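Quick check before the chapter quiz. The format below is the same one you will see on the exam, so make sure you can read both the input and the output lines.
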Amino acid sequence: MLDIEMQMEDEKDIDERATSYIGKLISEQLQVGHKYTELKKSIVIFITNYNFLKRNSYHSVGRLKFEKTLKEEYVELGYEEEDEIASEYIEYHYIELPKYKNKNPKDFTKLDQWMCIFTQNEGGIMLAKKENKEIERAINTLDFISEDPKERERHNSIVMAEYNRLTSQHNFYKAGLQDGIEKRKRRWNKRKFY
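Here is the expected output.
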């Protein structure tokens, strides 16, 4: 499960946003009758037009980790190495564009190629298009959509139709679930206890 968020201005609430987005991704997966083992990894990606983390990296990955074992809580159980990751199912990615602009790329990674698009680095985009066919297709699609107002409107209609379909599907599910709960309550109330 993936949520990608672009932030132009620092609203000073990114920690709260990230936490609520990851919670939503997880809760949407676990419907009544589903098993916990069906849970998929939830990833939130924030691409920001400002710096906010005190880190020397433009791409920071966060996971839930255990704190170091305190001396007074230590129990000798023979583990040479303790687990560090508390959950493999939650992951945060923060990409700070101003930091990327200051990067002097020695190796041109796939992430660097995509960052050239976000930072509008024309030289990097030309190089990325040569090395990565996915980027070439994405740029061609963006160019096509941005040049033709009718195509842009058609694209927006497709996106909105899919959003509306998913919303309707979710609403129908909730209505059906509520209907089932009401029927069960009525049956339960009709029972006579002696």
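If your answer matched, good. The chain has a mean pLDDT of 84.
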